[in-house]
């Protein structure tokens, strides 16, 4: 009987010791809670931006939608993807590409969509995207555009 109790005590002690590392590995930093309503709204804006980017080549609309979303919800779970769209849209607008043309005669557009400013914005957005997600699926294209923008300076 003493052997059984001793064996059970020994087994319990071993299991307790083996279980300690599991407690030590607990996540002590709380995860950032995402607001489900803002997340859903930002996801919708991202979907609309993708459609404007791919189908309509409406780069001004993409940039405006990104700025609206980023101002309201900078912790959006897919912000890197939105940064890519905004960066590429700014880059294309700086070259006067796309179906929405920039009218530099209008003061409002002159400030916001001047080619120099668009190139700076493209550089900032794409750099931030790479900083936030260095393994992004858009990494190669972003780096290519960043090299081109830096060479143009």
Write the layout of secondary structure elements.
Layout (H helix, E strand, L loop, with lengths): L1 H23 L11 H21 L2 H14 L6 H16 L12 H6 L2 H18 L6 H14 L1
Helix pairs in contact: 2-3, 2-4, 3-4, 4-6, 6-7
Descriptive notes:
- The longest helix is centred in the N-terminal third of the chain and has 23 residues, at 2-24.
- The protein has one domain: Serine Threonine Protein Phosphatase 5, Tetratricopeptide repeat (Alpha Horseshoe), CATH 1.25.40.10.
- It is mainly alpha-helical and 153 residues long.
- Helix 2 runs antiparallel to helix 3, helix 2 packs parallel to helix 4 and helix 3 (59-72) runs antiparallel to helix 4.
- The chain is globular, with a radius of gyration of 25 Å.
- The protein is built from 7 helices and no strands.
- The mean pLDDT is 86.
At the fourth level of CATH, the homologous superfamily is: Tetratricopeptide repeat domain
The CATH class designation is Mainly Alpha
Report the order of strands and helices. HHHHHHH
Q: Which overall shape is indicated by the principal axes computed on the Cα atoms?
A: globular
CATH architectural group: Alpha Horseshoe
Unreliably modeled segments:
none
Number of helices: 7
Biggest β-sheet description: none
Give the helix/strand class: mainly alpha
What is the radius of gyration computed over CA atoms, rounded to a whole number of angstroms? 25 Å
- Taking the alpha carbons of the first and last residues, their distance comes to 85 Å
Beta-strand residue fraction: under 5%
């Amino acid at each position: 009987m003493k052997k059984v109790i001793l064996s059970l005590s020994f087994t319990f002690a071993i299991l307790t010791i083996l279980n300690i590392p599991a407690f030590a590995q607990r996540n002590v930093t709380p995860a950032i809670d995402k607001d489900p309503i803002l997340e859903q709204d930002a996801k919708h804006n991202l979907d609309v931006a993708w459609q404007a980017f791919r189908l309509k080549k409406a780069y001004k609309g993409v940039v405006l939608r990104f700025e609206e979303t980023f101002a309201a919800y900078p912790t959006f779970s897919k912000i890197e993807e939105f940064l890519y769209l905004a960066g590429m849209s700014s880059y294309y607008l700086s070259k006067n590409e796309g179906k929405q043309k920039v009218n530099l005669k209008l003061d409002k557009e002159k400030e916001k969509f001047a080619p120099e400013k668009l190139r700076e914005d493209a550089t900032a957005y794409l750099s931030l995207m790479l900083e936030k997600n260095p393994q992004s699926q858009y990494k190669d294209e972003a780096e290519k555009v960043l090299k081109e923008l830096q060479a143009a300076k």
